[in-house]
């Protein structure tokens, strides 16, 4: 978890580290076209390790070498929050040099609209970064990660690793 309380014996945080194909917070990790579960040894270009520098650890990647130029990752439905118990989602992400974009959206269960709550784009990054978003909703909701790359450029990648959900999610 973002505050490291998942290192304790009694973990109250769901963490999706992509080391296995299972993650309770995500839709059984049935990867939408575009996402590839891989590690730095896969020979698919950057990144060459996960966010902690481990080249054998797994993460999700959308690469310009693939047929799809975008991919989504949707959480399961979360219960409403209140002002004392907001949902915090911490994740690591990689966006390559030029054209990658990662957005995080929020969708109330009663609506079809996905509201964009965060996004970041290339601009010569080529490094792992960390972000935490906070969600407060009076209704059931889902969180959507949406990645895009320019398939006309080589080695353009958006990757995501170690998504942690606080117990309030």
UniProtKB/TrEMBL annotation:
Leader peptide range in chain numbering: none
GO cellular component, as recorded: membrane
Native organism: Apaloderma vittatum (Bar-tailed trogon)
Protein name: MAM domain-containing protein
Domain MAM span(s) in chain numbering: 14-169
Pfam families recorded: MAM
SMART domains: MAM
InterPro entries: ConA-like_dom_sf, MAM_dom, MAM_domain-containing
Domain of life per record: Eukaryota
Classification via PROSITE patterns: MAM_2 (PS50060)
């Amino acid at each position: 978890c973002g505050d490291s309380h998942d290192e304790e014996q009694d973990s109250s945080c769901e963490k999706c580290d992509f080391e296995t194909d299972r993650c309770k917070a995500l839709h059984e990790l049935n990867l939408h076209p575009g996402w590839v579960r891989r590690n730095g040894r896969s020979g698919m270009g950057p990144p060459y390790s996960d966010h902690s520098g481990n080249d054998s650890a797994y993460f999700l990647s959308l690469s310009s070498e693939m047929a799809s130029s975008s991919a989504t990752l949707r959480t399961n439905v979360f219960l409403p929050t209140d002002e004392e118990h907001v949902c915090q989602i911490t994740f690591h992400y990689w966006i390559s040099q030029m054209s990658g974009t990662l957005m995080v959206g929020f969708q109330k269960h009663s609506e079809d609209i996905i509201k964009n709550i965060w996004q970041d784009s290339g601009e010569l990054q080529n490094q792992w970064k960390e972000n935490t978003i906070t969600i407060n909703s009076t209704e059931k909701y889902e969180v959507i990660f949406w990645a895009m790359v320019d398939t006309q450029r080589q080695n353009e990648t958006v990757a995501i690793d170690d998504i942690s959900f606080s117990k309030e999610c």
